[in-house]
Specification:
- By secondary structure, the chain is α/β, with parallel strands linked by helices.
- The protein is built from seven helices and three strands; from the N terminus they run βαβααβαααα.
- The protein has a single domain, classed as 3-Layer(aba) Sandwich (Rossmann fold).
- A three-stranded parallel beta sheet has the order 1-2-3.
């Protein structure tokens, strides 16, 4: 048994890394990974990217840019687990298992889904117009990301706290 604090964070691979990624996620994660009492898991969230981006070439390019950014800014892969989400087949498997036991009503209250429905209703459209199952199930995928590595510490942005 280890006394290390397991921490996990990922960046969605939908665009070029920016200052917000650096200040909000990458810099604090790299600093944490240098601590002897932290076991770090950092990932390229390419499954999450599929919800926001339909261009596979853009996702692939972003994946390379974000990986290069982590490494250029000093991530030591001897001290941290650094991986591409889609390289871990257990993540979609766990996502499915969680999906089978997650109440639809709980997912109806997810912020991203509610925001999409509210936008549609404001535009006098059907609430679910253009809303993918991926967006609806997004919180379940996030839960699988966390549970697969049993990470009790998951630094996230304000928009992700609900998950």
């Amino acid at each position: 048994m280890t006394d290390k604090i397991r921490t996990l964070t990922g960046i969605t691979t939908t665009g070029t890394p920016h200052l917000g990624n650096y200040v909000g996620a990458i810099r604090p994660a790299i600093e944490a990974s240098r601590r002897d009492d932290v076991e770090s898991f950092y990932f390229l969230a390419d499954y999450h990217a599929l919800i926001k981006c339909e261009d596979p070439a853009r996702i692939a390019q972003s994946r390379l840019e974000i990986a290069a950014t982590w490494l250029a800014l000093g991530l030591d892969t001897d001290r941290a687990f650094f991986y591409r989400q889609s390289d871990i087949p257990e993540i979609p498997e766990l996502t499915w298992l969680l999906t089978c036991v997650t109440a639809k009503g709980l997912l109806n209250r997810a912020h991203a889904y509610k925001a999409a429905v509210d936008r549609n209703l404001a535009d006098n459209e059907d609430g679910d117009a253009g809303v993918s199952a991926g967006l609806f199930m997004y919180p379940v995928l996030m839960a699988a990301d966390i549970l697969i590595f049993n990470a009790p510490r998951v630094p996230v942005g304000r928009d992700q706290v609900q998950h």
